[in-house]
């Protein structure tokens, strides 16, 4: 995770792979590895990682969304196939994540507006709504809007001070654009 935060995506993947070699049980818990694979553009491998993770943790909305994004970015699949294959997860206690899931599940303007509204609850919710709006635009081929949302996410107090790995993800995704 430290390597990823330092923009060493490849080194991060190598470190996660070494950890899995040491203890294979770690593989199904390595969601951060999936994010690094996504950031590197290894979308098929990222999707496989997220599918393994959801099998172990079936209530994690974010892993379902990242699997969708990975498959949507995979040239052999795309958004339509990713939506058809989208993993259904159990209830996520975070209201903003319900809105995130709905946006990726439906792709509608109504769902986008609902996510923007859900992002008004707290600085953390603002960060997550902006991060996932950026991801949504990225997978739908709108790089300019993706860059704008990732930039806004990175500008939140949450991104600057929370220590949340997802803030690192937002920074890395923006830098690689």
UniProtKB/TrEMBL annotation:
Keywords: TPR repeat. Signal peptide: none annotated. The keyword Transferase does not apply. It comes from the Eukaryota. TPR repeats lie at residues 28-60. GO terms for cellular component: chloroplast. PROSITE patterns: TPR. PANTHER family: PTHR47908, TETRATRICOPEPTIDE REPEAT (TPR)-LIKE SUPERFAMILY PROTEIN. This is Tetratricopeptide repeat. It comes from Ostreococcus tauri.
